[in-house]
Amino acid sequence: MTTLQPVNARTGAAHGKPIAASSADDIDQAVTDAHQAFTAWAATPGDSRAALLRALADALEAERDTLVAWADLETALGPVRLNGELDRTTFQLRRFADLAQRGVPFEVLDDPAVAGSPPAAHAAMVRQRVPLGPVAVFAASNFPFAFSVLGGDTASALAAGCPVVVKAHPAHPGLSQRVAGVIQRVLRTLDLPLGLIGLVQGATVDAGVQLIRHPLIAAGAFTGSTRGGAALQAEANARARPIPFYGELGSINPVVALPVALAARGAELARTLAGSITLGCGQFCTNPGLLLMLDGPDTEAFIPQLVLALSRQQPHPMLSAAMRKAFDAGVRSLMDAGALSLLQGQGTPPAPGPQLLQVSAQRFIERAELREEVFGPSSLIVRCANLDEVRQVLEAVGGSLTVTLWGADEDTADNRALVRSAMQIAGRVLFAGVPTGVAVTAAQQHGGPWPSSTAPMTTSVGDAALDRFLRPVCLQDAPAWLLGRGGVPC
Ligand code: NAP
Fold it and tell me: Model's pTM, two decimal places?
């Protein structure tokens, strides 16, 4: 039997008993059970969906101490961050409960019949949406609650009327197993089929590949690396019947710090930025990995302030030894491609020290390696001679979850051009603050052009995450009984 061994992320030591990896039969069974639960769940009214989502949130909170302790052990993210993340996760579950109860998944567009001749005339038409079917959810390592077993993908899929089969992340198998136990207790209490929310554990990439290839899986929702997302997207497309694949991937999140902002608030911005670069040991998809600055005295004054503020930060150990190795390799790769190190923090092993590097705009545009996400507490300054170069650098980035513009507060031709460039490549454009911290709200857009997402028209965070799992259907001249269901599938 293949197993996964939970590991203490701070020491690398084995913790607790090994966990059985799911066999091919287990994965097939989980998907078959989800498929069997689909028709009934798709036809549930909003109240029933809300009851499940709220019960899951309550149950997570009831088990908080045990779950946070497991998460801390397997991720080293610390209880403060993890309690906050659990709060965000239950907030998200309850928010999707509210949306389901308000009838958002059942909204219909009524297009009454028009008499006369075509093309203006038409039959009575109603556009509504149906849930896609069982969703394969791929958990990320760096959000053991919010982008894991009961994270946003699971919550939004359930609210939309879809069962899920979660592929647990192998970096926190112990926590994932405990959350699965919480889920099963809730499903039993509510007399719902256990197959509605399944969990599979994989010791190798094969488990995820089998899951996304399964003919009864109707969509994939992935949070993780660009490489992993690309591999799974290719699998989703190579199926006999390709399926939608929503991949939220890596991102380098450019921050454009214009001289006007640096002159006004340089010291404060340096402290804020240093905190954002090292938050969670830099292990955020919204980590500000790229800083665009114009040559000149304000930038010259700002960089030493940033170096000082960063050197005072003490990142904690990373999620795993493999993540640490990848971080060191990523920093080396930037230097090999011509970036100059401005700060090489040594850290307190196994925690890495903060890294700050610098490169010219021209070099950045020439060398693709400089545009790779380095997952950890590091950032690369790109020195630009003028605003044209800033825009060229943004264009070279191509796709990002966020772009931050500090100092674009006036309505000028330059600022308009900058905003245009930022909106062209990012899902979220900020004009103050830092990109880390993604609010779960109505207007949120978490997903930008490739390589930050496989589906930039959609978001994995916020209310619109629900839309990913619903497919429009037009009902033409439908009978009254069907229209009377108010958009709830039969
Ligand atoms: P990861 O290593 O890509 O893992 C994510 C999931 O994909 C895991 O279940 C993993 O399982 C699976 N996987 C990876 N490669 C695969 C392959 N070739 N074939 C099949 N399955 C594969 O990502 P991670 O290390 O957890 O997370 C860090 C990355 O996620 C960073 O790049 C970060 O920026 C990104 N991230 C993005 C967002 C966002 O919302 N955009 C949020 C958080 C994190 P196995 O390990 O078992 O293969």
Answer: 0.97
